[in-house]
Amino acid sequence: MKMIIDELKSSNGHLMIGGVDSTVLAKKYGTPLYVFDVEKIRKQIRSFKTAFEKNQLKNQVSYASKAFAVKAIYQVMKQEDVHVDVVSGGELYTALQAGFPSEKISFHGNNKSAAELKMAVENHVGVIILDNFLEISLLSQILKATEQKVKVMLRLTPGISAHTHKYDQTGQTDSKFGFDVESGQAKQALKLVLADPNMEILGIHAHIGSQIFGTQGFVLLAKKMIEIAKSFQSELNYWPEVINLGGGFGISYTDDDDPITADTFITQISDELKKVCQNVPEIWIEPGRSIVGPAGYTLYSIGSRKDIPGLTSYLSVDGGMGDNIRPALYQAKYEAVVANKMDQENQETVHIAGKYCESGDILIENLVLPKTKPGDILAVLDTGAYGYSMAMNYNRNPRAAVVFVENGQDKLVVRRETYADLIKLDGDY
């Protein structure tokens, strides 16, 4: 934590983000405010690419945009020449409106509607990841009716679970996602796709979970996917052009977190693949949190304070669970600093409370800070993933603005909602 503070502190004791004083951003755009350091995003993408090149693996880095999906981030991904994956018609629409090339889009989701599948086909998305038998049937009908063809992958549940929060585990057999391998569902699905003249099966996909720190699960997944591919080849004469290992690479939210580097992860995966397979397919990964999470900051203005004799004080901010639901939903942990007092000594321990009318709206428990006063700016670190994308209007609070900073320049990429925005869909009775 100290290294982070020293790295980001300006000469006047303010938090600097992408070469811009965070207190200036707070004054200019208001709070709560999401701020992204774009250079950090670019560096992380390039670290994945470099690691693949070092290990001489054919690859694609596909940004899992559910982590953060606005037009501006899709435009950054286009500039960095990566793929993206989307999980809804809304994310697909946003990517297309941002000018992102449709041929570099993967369409995920466990219950895609006929309308969403039709939208994907009409816009010529690069690949549709099929999740269940209904989707195979719906897509087959759409392709036949429109006389079009599309590339597909099969999402599999290979029976490997990640050691994370139970809601973040998606690769084990008992999951709402994908075709189960053990029961034979995956093989049955492959037969159906191979028999459809309008579907080109590009490869197989699996995702074992989120916020994973070790490499063991990914190494086991790589080995398992090759085993599955070999069984498909021997029984159905099919060898995948692509094996997609999903995402889930953890980031450091607190000093207790010890994430693996892109180089470590990809090198160990590469070693395993080359050990079990002579003809390694192209490898795709889908990092989301690890690309945008560490690049994001949420700025709040400190407001009221509640002191209770013998207990930890509560320090309230002008946001909370509406702009970061993860602490309430997952008991997620974060670190924070007082952006205008980075050079002052920590003197007290407080709970950071949100403004929402819920007792569970606590952003951070037992945070050690300098002495504060109303109007000071609190900066919560590493909030780039699943903050804005999960934001809501609970208590009829407008959603915060989003600012990108790079090379000392700041740009508003999502304006703050107004009260008028909150009622624009309401009708009278």
Tell me about this structure.
This protein is an alpha/beta fold and about 425 residues long. The protein folds into 2 domains: about 170 residues, Lyase, Ornithine Decarboxylase, Chain A, domain 1 (Beta Barrel); about 180 residues, Alanine racemase (TIM Barrel), CATH 3.20.20.10. Helices cover about 30% and strands about 25% of the residues. The protein is built from 13 helices and 20 strands. It is an enzyme of class 4 (lyase).
How many structural domains does the protein architecture include?
2
Q: Which residues sit in consecutive blocks of at least 5 with pLDDT less than 50?
A: 164-172
Under the CATH scheme, the architecture of the largest domain is: Alpha-Beta Barrel
So what's the overall shape? Answer: globular
Distance between the termini: 54 Å
CATH fold naming of the largest domain: TIM Barrel
What do we call the CATH homologous superfamily of the largest domain? Alanine racemase
Mean pLDDT equals 92
